[in-house]
Amino acid sequence: MRLKSLFAAASLSALAVSTALADPLPVVAVNREIGLSMAGIFDNLVGGYGDQYQTTGGQWYRPYHSASQSRSRRIGWVPGFQVDASTMVSLGRIENLYASALFRLGSGTRNNKYASSYSSSYGSDAWQTNGGESANSTYSRGEIGKGFLVLDDKALITPFVQGGYDSYGYDSFGGQNAFFVGLGLNADYALTDRLVLRGRFGWAEILDTGTYRVNGASTRPRWEGSLGADYAMTRHWHLTAGGDYAYTSYGHDTYRYAYQSTSEGQVSGRWTSSGIQNGLTLRAGLAYAY
Fold first, then answer.
1. What is the pLDDT of residues 136-150, one digit of tens each?
2. What pLDDT score was predicted for residue 74?
3. Do 272 and 252 contact (CB within 8 A), yes or no?
4. Beta carbons of 258 and 274 less than 8 angstroms apart
């Protein structure tokens, strides 16, 4: 009887160990990786400023008016790389808890186009420039969420919350910096035991950005979408590839002012600004699944 008990305990232990060591589902395995990718990073930032000023004339000066408009566009590709890591674990009865971190760096030259026009009571002028300028950027992001298996465990849906930090500079990293927070949804689908298609949709609010703002820093929305694939060459080594798109609206901003001056009379004016940004990252690399 004692031998039977020992044999039963040993069998249960072996079963528990074999279950623990069993390969995870393909859609879970792709969320337990450490990866390195080469990247091509495209950016298209378009925006402009306007300025209007007028006076009715006073004791010292005649009536006067002026108006100016400027428009700029930063566009082009730069090379870079991406490092990312993710994990998916179960704690007690809560399965498929998810966490990930990503860092992306780009450095190269983009084309900067700038045009300006000016008119006033005394005349008008216009000019434009066009040329390459250094472009350096970093993008850091973290996510936490929980996955839900569907379609006979062939698909995994993972809602998440996210937060991160953007930086952009010219001759150095930094200069235009902003934190962001948001929500999103990851979707993974196993076409085969080796090939998993991956998708991501996210929304984030960029906090206290001063980009194309004339009335103080503001929080602006960004929408994100990604498509990719993960192919398992072996149990641990995976090929990864994909594309990430982001759209940011900096909106329309206006600042108005008016006051009375003895020298100029009634003075009034306004400043305006607007801008949008489109970004696309294409990446391909290698990941280690643990």
1. 999 999 999 999 999
2. 92
3. yes
4. no
Q: Is residue 4 part of a domain?
A: no
Residue 42's Cβ-side half-sphere holds a number of Cα atoms within 13 Å equal to 12
Residue 20 in any domain: the answer is no
6 within some domain: no
**pLDDT range class, residue 17, cuts 50, 70, 90:** very low
Mean pLDDT along residues 102-126? 95
Question: Which range marks the domain in which residue 123 is found?
Answer: 26-289
Q: Measured in Å, how far apart are the chain's first and last C-alpha atoms?
A: 41
230, part of any domain: yes
* Cβ count within 10 A of residue 289: 22
Phi, psi of 268 (to 5 degrees): -145, 160
Give the domain CATH number at 53: 2.40.128
What is the total count of domains within the chain? 1
DSSP string, 130-186: EEEEEEEEEEEEEEEEE-EEETTTTEEEEEEEEEEEEEEESSSS-SEEEEEEEEEEE
Cα–Cα distance measured from residue 268 to residue 259, given in angstroms and rounded to the nearest whole number = 7
Q: Which amino acid is at 167?
A: S
Query: Looking at 34-48, 70-84, 233-247, 248-262, which range is the least confident one?
Result: 248-262
> Is the pLDDT reported for residue 261 higher than 80?
yes
Q: Specify the pTM.
A: 0.85
Q: Is residue 242 a contact partner of residue 230, using CB atoms and an 8 Å limit?
A: no
